[in-house]
């Protein structure tokens, strides 16, 4: 009995290995170039924080397939498994599985991702928040819609995991510490590398810590991150935010950002 059992086990393992080998990372769909036009530009002051929203739309000849559909199909095909990162696998907490529509929240260490997510979920920051060392998932339920905000820590040993979850996301939220200009070049590098994996994924950049001394304007951050180069096919939003510890109510800018993200997920269903 040992011989047949060993042969059957070998076949199963071979099938699983071939399946793993055939799993590709998120690929960029090749379409006809689109002529981009800036159709919306708003500048307002809400709760002492200025924010600008850029929305790009396409004009001219339409591709054979709608951008949103191409992006969704690409992500669906590659959601099974992404390739292992080239770097040595760090020891982190157990990875989470999405249970609803997923919003991916990324950014360098110390940008304020965890605090923002806490405010998104609870509406305030009345307790100490520990920076995420692995994965942090927050779910928000709206009527028949469940949205999972998945944050991956921003430390160097976790950054190889970022691209692995791009294919599962409906919206990418990238958080930047607007008061730390020294990190802008590195933030730009990582952001552009992420966006190369999906030409159509909507992007929300949060210029966080606007209340800190020396925080740059969102116009300056737009230039520093070269957001004009991220692609004409995607929706892009840049919003200034800040979170104060022990605030019993979330400020209007953070609330606007949360509502915008939820609306984008609803529109993308």
From TrEMBL:
Mg(2+) binds at residues 114, 132. Pfam families: Arf. Residues 62-71 have a biased composition (Basic and acidic residues). GO terms for molecular function: GTP binding; GTPase activity; metal ion binding. Keywords: GTP-binding, Magnesium, Metal-binding, Nucleotide-binding. InterPro entries: Arf-like_GTPase, P-loop_NTPase, Small_GTPase_ARF/SAR. GTP binds at residues 107-114, 154, 208-211. The keyword Phosphoprotein does not apply. Residues 62-90 are annotated as: Disordered. This is ADP-ribosylation factor-like 9. The gene is LOC112256290.
């Amino acid at each position: 009995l040992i011989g047949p059992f060993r042969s059957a086990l070998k076949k199963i393992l071979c099938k699983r290995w071939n399946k793993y080998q055939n799993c590709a990372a998120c690929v960029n769909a090749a379409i006809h170039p689109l002529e981009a036009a800036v159709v919306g530009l708003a500048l307002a002051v809400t709760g002492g924080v200025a924010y600008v929203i850029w929305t790009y739309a396409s004009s001219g000849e339409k591709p054979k397939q709608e951008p949103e559909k191409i992006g969704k199909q690409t992500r669906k095909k590659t959601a099974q498994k992404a390739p292992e990162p080239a770097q040595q696998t760090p020891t982190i907490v157990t990875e989470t599985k999405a249970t609803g529509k997923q919003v991916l929240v990324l950014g360098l260490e110390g940008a304020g991702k965890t605090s923002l997510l806490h405010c998104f979920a609870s509406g305030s920051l009345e307790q100490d928040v520990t920076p995420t060392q692995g994965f942090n998932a927050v779910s928000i339920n709206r009527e028949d819609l469940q949205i999972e905000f998945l944050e991956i820590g921003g430390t160097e040993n976790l950054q190889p995991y970022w691209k692995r979850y791009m294919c599962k996301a409906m919206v990418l939220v990238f958080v930047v510490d607007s008061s730390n200009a020294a990190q802008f070049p590195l933030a730009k590098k990582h952001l552009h590398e992420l966006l190369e994996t999906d030409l159509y994924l909507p992007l929300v950049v949060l210029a966080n810590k606007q209340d800190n001394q020396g925080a740059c304007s969102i116009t300056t951050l737009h230039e520093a991150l070269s957001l004009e180069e991220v692609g004409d096919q995607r929706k892009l939003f840049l919003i200034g935010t800040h979170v104060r510890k022990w605030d019993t109510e979330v400020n209007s800018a953070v609330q606007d950002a949360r509502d915008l993200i939820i609306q984008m997920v609803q529109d993308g269903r």
